[in-house]
Specification:
196 residues, mainly alpha, Rna Polymerase Sigma Factor, Chain: A, Arc Repressor Mutant, subunit A, 2 domains, 2 strands, disordered C terminus
């Protein structure tokens, strides 16, 4: 049985908050997230006659929103000059022993020992993750979001961000390292390896 759309006058009440939270996680800017959600509703209204009912209404809106987010990121990188590749600075380099290339004892990641699916269901975790993403340089945060949240392919991300695959790999590595460190400080109890 095909799904049908609800009355457009109900869309903002039914889906606005969820779409806004998703956009804010991706874009890390309240005003931009609001604008992209508004564009999503306008686009949905313009294309509502083409809704085929193969997915539920919320999934349809999320699909439109994902395209709007990618369009926004693509546009912002076309307008912005290329950033220095060393987007996260030398701080991460101090986490490793230069002779062995292994973690220093005082900077090594701790074991989290948690069920990842349960963790992702916690609203508080998403707030902390959003906060940690906000601390990354814009380009690194965008690279991480496109790869890990939007699940875009490397080639697509490189086109959107106007970077090489090697630059992307370095940015993703450094972003993951910084995110892990931030999550350990803001979410995980280092001594016990458990969530707050």
């Amino acid at each position: 049985m095909k799904n049908s759309l609800s009355n457009p006058s109900e869309w903002v009440d039914k889906h606005g908050d969820a779409l806004y939270r998703y956009a804010l996680l991706q874009l890390r800017n309240q005003k931009t997230a609001e604008e992209v959600v508004q564009e999503t509703f306008v686009s949905a209204l313009q294309s509502k006659d083409r809704f085929e009912g193969r997915s539920n209404e919320r999934s349809w809106f999320i699909g439109i929103l994902k395209h709007k987010i990618i369009d926004h990121i693509r546009k912002s990188y076309r307008e912005r000059a290329a950033e220095n590749l060393d987007v996260l600075g030398d701080e991460l380099e101090t986490m490793f022993d230069p002779e062995t290339g292994h973690w220093r004892k005082d900077t090594a990641p701790t074991e989290w020992n948690l069920n990842a699916d349960q963790l992702l269901e916690k609203k508080e975790f998403w707030e902390v993750l959003r906060s940690c993403l906000a601390n990354l340089p814009q380009k690194a945060a965008d690279a991480f979001s496109l790869k890990e949240i939007e699940e875009m392919k490397t080639e697509e991300i490189c086109k959107v961000l106007n970077i090489t695959p090697t630059n992307l790999w370095v940015m993703l590595h450094r972003a993951r390292m910084q995110l892990r460190r931030c999550l350990e400080v803001k979410w995980f109890n280092k001594k016990e390896g458990r969530a707050k």
